[in-house]
Design brief:
The chain has 280 residues and is of the alpha/beta class. Helix 5 (80-93) links the parallel strand 2 and strand 3. The longest helix has 19 residues, at 246-264. Strands 3-2-1-4-5-7-6 form a seven-stranded mixed β-sheet, with helices on both faces. It has helices spanning 4-9, 17-22, 30-40, 60-67, 80-93, 130-140, 158-170, 177-187, 191-200, 220-225, 227-232, 234-238, 246-264, and strands at 48-52, 72-77, 98-102, 115-121, 141-152, 204-217, 267-279. The two termini are 32 Å apart. It has two domains: 1-152, 3-Layer(aba) Sandwich (Rossmann fold); 153-188 and 213-273, no CATH class.
Length: 280
């Protein structure tokens, strides 16, 4: 275990490749959600905590360090390479109270009533079966445990989707607007949907906190080439269209977004989100 003496004696080599690898950029997308989640968690020593959809380690490692070495914090995620990344960072920073488990939220390999705290940072809205995943969160939570999770609200990126819908109609794909709307509803459920799921999982909702941030781009060209847009959004947007129509439609979409940027100074996407504070 990392002692206070270790910490005070430690010297970092800022030319170390290991340090640079561990010190990767905290994704700006997940940080606002995660900061609200961390502010909502009740921190107590010796907690048994679980991060569902722990990815590459945020907020898993931050939570583990804030809880302290007496706590045990487990992260579960099906993404093996992301878990490997989290393990590397845990080793480098000597966060010894973390365990990474490969698995899915809908069928977690943990006993009933095992955890005192369960968190998920914008993860439960990205599983295949949110109702079952939330029920599993309830199952593995001990009586009185806190469950805190964050999720986008339906108005996320509304400015983009308004332009995309206009382009679909203008290019003869009006019937595809319904598919786009269905995608938004599936990935960004309204508060009432989550509140119903929470009740069905046998959990009590104590409060819902809301906030928002802006994701700004200088042009449509910049937006469509952003790394996280390409990684996390573009495939779903392309799937709305027949393959042969993707390129011409996205050319028109880029041009229209460029027009928005010229008229307004940028393409500003509002990202509203909620933090659900529940208990078992």
């Amino acid at each position: 275990m990392l002692t206070l003496e270790d910490i005070l004696a430690e010297k970092f080599d800022f030319e170390s490749s290991d340090l640079v690898t561990a010190f990767d950029e905290l994704p700006l997308w997940s940080a606002p959600f995660g900061l609200m989640l961390l502010d909502t968690v009740r921190l107590r020593p010796s907690l048994r905590a679980l991060d569902v959809g722990s990815g590459a380690g945020f907020p898993l490692l931050e939570l583990a360090q804030r809880l302290g070495p007496e706590a045990r914090v487990v992260g579960i995620d099906p993404w093996r390479s992301a878990a490997d990344r989290a393990r590397l960072k845990a080793r480098f920073y000597r966060v010894d109270n973390v365990e990474l488990v490969e698995g899915v939220a809908e069928q977690m390999p943990f006993p009933d009533a095992h955890f005192d705290l369960v968190v998920s940072n914008n993860g439960l809205n990205n599983v295949r079966d949110p109702e079952r995943a939330l029920a599993e969160c309830g199952r593995v939570s001990a009586p009185g445990a806190q469950l805190v999770f964050t999720a986008n609200l339906p108005e996320t990126m509304q400015a983009f989707y308004d332009v995309f819908s206009e382009v679909l109609r203008a290019t003869g794909h009006a019937t595809r607007v319904e598919a786009l709307t269905a995608h938004i509803a599936a990935k960004r459920p309204a508060r009432v949907v989550w509140e119903a799921r929470i009740r069905e999982a046998g959990l009590t909702l104590d409060r819902v906190l809301e906030s928002r941030f802006l994701w700004r781009f200088a042009s449509g060209r910049a937006l469509l080439r952003h790394g996280f847009i390409r990684l996390g959004f573009l495939d779903a947007w392309k799937a709305v269209l027949p393959p042969d129509d993707v390129l011409p439609v996205f050319r028109e979409l880029e041009q229209r977004l460029d027009g928005v940027a010229r008229a307004k100074g940028d393409v500003a996407l509002g990202i509203p989100y909620a933090c659900y504070d529940c208990r078992r």
